[in-house]
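Before a computer can learn anything about folding, someone has to put a protein's shape into writing. The outcome of that step, for a single protein, is printed below:
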Amino acid sequence: MSAKKSLQRPKGMQDVLPEDRRYWDFVIHAATDLAQRYGFERVDVPIIEDTELFARGVGTASDVFVQKEMYTIEEPDGSSIALRPEFTAGVMRAHIQNGMSSWPQPVKIFTMGPIFRRERPQAGRFRQHSQFDAEILGETDPAADLEVMMLAMNLYRDLGYQGLTFQLNSTGCPHCRPGYLELLTAYLSTYAGKLAPIDNERLEKNPLRVLDSKEPGMDELLASAPHIVDHLCEDCAAHFADLRLMLDNMEQSYTINFRLVRGLDYYTKTVFEVWAQGIGAQAAVCGGGRYDGLAEAIGGPSIPGVGFGSGIERIVMGLKQQGIEPPESAKPIALVAHFGGATKIAAVQLCYRLREAGIGTRLAFARERRSLKSQMREANRSEVKFALIIGESELEEGFVAVRPLTGGDQARVPLSEIVDWVKNG
């Protein structure tokens, strides 16, 4: 009979082990603290939504649909649900369903958690990856665009990233974009024979996405393509000029990137990315923009919005590439050793007394009597500061033997005083 095959995690997934988890905790704490200082409040939305939400919101011409990246489930009643491939459509659905238009405006909310895309795994991007997401809903002021941009920028600054700058563009609106798309399509069509199959497909369904192509030869081909910022309507041009004026007055570095369009269909007007130096070929660390037509696309009233998403795995990878170390995780400072029987009972009780006093403590587990030498090896591996030893004589006399593991002499401390002694030791 053949041995059972060892089960592995699915392709594109990862296990976050303690050494990496301290990076994650560092990022999550920084993101939460910063968002709350900006006046954002946390919400959480379901991991699973109706597939139709993403069909309407993300768009069937986006890569999520074109490349069949969504994980969908057919329900017994014939309906379809999907693991969320992004946050914004679900956040907007929650805004509409929960009547957030009656809240003090604008609504400033953030969330974080896993999203799912069946795409080719690559450095810092997995089929399940986690995002920090921030949105301002119900406001058209370009200052709201600036606020989410600076929230993104300052998150990376607070984490210690260097060489940060914005890449910025406008994708226009339903009034001016069609005219630009005609020009772009006419230009790209003259090169249809040189386009990769995926770009020809994009040309048919969503020509803007060709600007974002990473296929060989596209940098040269697109160098002479028309720029959308040269064809904006009066409203979009004024919005973009206002945003740039605020960035200029803040002396905030940015580059107009006419090829920046983002990957989802709901974006209008502002789109941006934060780029960092020294993190390898993929300089973009996060991105977002404005999506004033999303609420109507999913069946709601007109609700303007602007926001961004930042992948936590990507942030962690960048921290490592830039040599940024997060604070060490809190670890136990004491291990309680014993010799079974009544000494084990006393050791268990002491562990919980110490923990209730806020002192991180390990208990040396042993169903039967275990040598002190073995327990000291565990204490050394655990890098605790003290080994607290309760033997039969210590138990009888009401003491604890304290052995410092970083130098110093062993001491005997009354059991009634040990908590204060460890706190001050």
Q: What stands out?
A: The domain at 334-424 is CATH 3.40.50.800 (Rossmann fold). The chain has 15 helices and 16 strands. The first helix runs from residue 18 to 37.
